[in-house]
Design brief:
Elements (H helix, E strand, L loop, with lengths): L3 E3 L8 H16 L7 E4 L1 H10 L3 H9 L6 H17 L4 H13 L5 E7 L15 E5 L4 H10 L4 H9 L9 E7 L5 E6 L10 E8 L3 H4 L6 E6 L4 E6 L5 E5 L5 E5 L12 H18 L3 E8 L2 E9 L6
Antiparallel strand pairs: 1-2, 2-5, 3-4, 3-5, 6-7, 6-12, 7-8, 8-9, 10-11, 12-13
Helix pairs in contact: 3-4, 4-6
Length: 315
């Protein structure tokens, strides 16, 4: 059995195997969008891991005990299931395949991202429900894979299943393992302005360092509004930024002060804003629906690290 698949061999139709995130990264890679190279540990690896360790019945029993109206029952089930997964042994065939594929990436650091197989439809978004581990090294990759699997059962993710009526649906999880971009600037973008809902307005948010600072809401980013029919930048907001997330030499991340000379500067130039805006519009055109994108800039080159449908539009 093959447990991994390179991005270039995954399409948008492979969400059952690669999860929503993995399927999107594969699709974008295949059509020439600049995506950092990587592979997906397919959902069948998680299923094989659960089976090899005999955890199926215990997980089902823990989920059956949940009353979503009683938060303590959600928390108890979560603790039980996550403890079982983290403590269980990684089957050697899965371990060897992850190690082999990691070495083929020829990089010291990867991002390890959960990718749920019931992820990111127009009505439900698992974004933010499951875990991501940036700047993971080969020594910690197996442990972080297990943590991604376990994050399918955090209290928040369990509650979300019940809230969205997914608790009787079999949900698995794939794991994206992707070469880490050491971004000088990064952020998110929406191909339709999520506040005005104007489909001709595209908005980009940008900050120094790794994108986690923006995604987590820990800092206020710059924001730039671009009109798609004229490519005019109609609004520029420049945010002062005191701290950024950077890579630790040993792997993992840390907050670091932004140098005084950069604090109040605009993060992207006009040309960079338009280059990125056109890339976001290209992704929207390819999918045929509005997209929410995570991006990174390293050595003056833009990379797309995630794309999913915008789930908050009402019009």
């Amino acid at each position: 059995m093959t447990f991994t698949r390179h991005f270039k061999n995954i399409t948008k139709n492979d969400a059952a195997l690669a999860g929503g995130k993995g399927a999107s990264l594969g699709e974008m890679t295949r059509v020439g969008i600049p995506v950092p190279p990587g592979f997906v540990l397919l959902s069948q690896a998680f299923d094989a891991f659960i089976k090899a360790n005999g955890l199926e019945a215990e997980i089902e029993a823990a989920l059956d005990s949940v009353n979503p109206q009683q938060m303590h029952s959600v928390e108890q089930a979560s603790t039980r299931i996550q403890t079982l997964i983290i403590a269980a042994k990684m089957p050697s065939d899965i371990e060897h395949e992850i190690t082999d594929q990691f070495e083929k990436l020829q990089t010291r650091y990867v991002a390890v991202r959960s990718s749920a197989t019931a992820e990111d439809s127009a009505h439900a978004a698992w974004a933010g429900q499951l875990d991501t581990f940036l700047n993971t090294t080969q020594t910690s990759v197996l442990e972080n894979v297990k943590k991604c699997w376990a994050s399918l059962f955090t209290p928040r993710a369990i509650f979300y299943r019940f809230e969205k009526g997914l608790h009787n649906q079999r949900i698995s999880v794939a794991v994206v393992i992707q070469k880490m971009v050491e971004s000088e600037i990064s952020g998110i973008a929406f191909s339709v302005h999520p506040v005005t809902q104007d489909r001709n307005q595209l908005i980009i948010e940008a900050a120094y360092g790794l994108g986690e600072a923006v995604v987590s809401g820990s800092i206020t980013p710059d924001s730039y509004v671009v009109e798609k029919n004229t490519w005019l930048i109609t609004s520029v907001y420049i945010a002062d930024q005191d701290q950024e997330i950077v890579r630790l030499a040993t792997g993992g991340n840390e907050w670091k002060p932004v140098t005084e000379s950069r604090k109040d500067k605009q993060k992207l130039t006009r040309d960079q804003i338009l280059e990125l805006a056109k890339l976001i519009a290209l992704i929207e055109d390819h999918y045929g629906f509005p997209v929410d994108v995570e991006w990174a800039l390293e050595n003056r080159k833009f990379y797309i690290t995630q794309s999913r449908p915008i789930t908050t539009l009402t019009a």
